[in-house]
């Protein structure tokens, strides 16, 4: 009796799911699922299967009439064209910022939510965007895909190579609208603009002091932690800041990089030079 029930159950499953001559799966009541013959993925609509198959064939029938770039799906072409038109139809409900592509809005929203769904399997660090995780992974693999054709140096990220090339060209494409100063890196311009605006977005959680640059906050925090990561190789003395170690090393090397314009005398420290100059100006 028990065996008969099992046989009926199996027979019932076979009857409710049949395969037609095209390889499509038919489920009971005339419902059909469409099977990809390459990867065996199943779709509920034939149009979805057709779009999916372009992944395997490489077919990109939707072409941009402005830049000639082509896509597998019509919607992807529509979204792409916003780059040319400047249209930004995707809006953040939290801050109102707009984007030309929906995936960029999705990534942006994680700034507000703090969501970081992409995790590094090696060190556990998390990221809000898949592309950021991909770039991060190169730290572990040592992969450097981007090569400088001038000096041969290699880099793990494309934007780092672009910035590096400014060393060779002398180009400084980031300009301050207030004073006209130019910079080879965008973050240097951002930091510089704060000298005009007075903005200090980096705050010490211990004493509340604020800084315009994150690096300055890092140095300041060592006042509270007592950390001295810069050690003199000659005498072993340690310092909280790298520049303090550089200045200290002149005791050992005898280097005197600061020269008096009046008499040519040299000094190890800038403050000593400034005090010396007072003798000339007082005369």
UniProtKB/TrEMBL annotation:
GO terms for biological process: negative regulation of DNA-templated transcription; positive regulation of DNA-templated transcription. InterPro entries: Znf_C2H2_sf, Znf_C2H2_type. It holds the Pfam family zf-C2H2_6. SMART domains: ZnF_C2H2 (SM00355). Keywords: DNA-binding, Isopeptide bond, Metal-binding, Nucleus, Repeat, Transcription, Transcription regulation, Ubl conjugation, Zinc, Zinc-finger. Its main location: nucleus. GO terms for cellular component: chromosome; nucleus. It comes from the Eukaryota. It is found in: Nucleus. GO terms for molecular function: DNA-binding transcription factor activity, RNA polymerase II-specific; sequence-specific DNA binding; zinc ion binding. Residues 34-61, 62-89, 90-117, 118-145, 146-173, 174-201, 202-229, 230-257, 258-283 form the C2H2-type domain. Belongs to the krueppel C2H2-type zinc-finger protein family. This is Finger OZF-like. It comes from Octopus vulgaris. The lineage of its organism: Eukaryota, Metazoa, Spiralia, Lophotrochozoa, Mollusca.
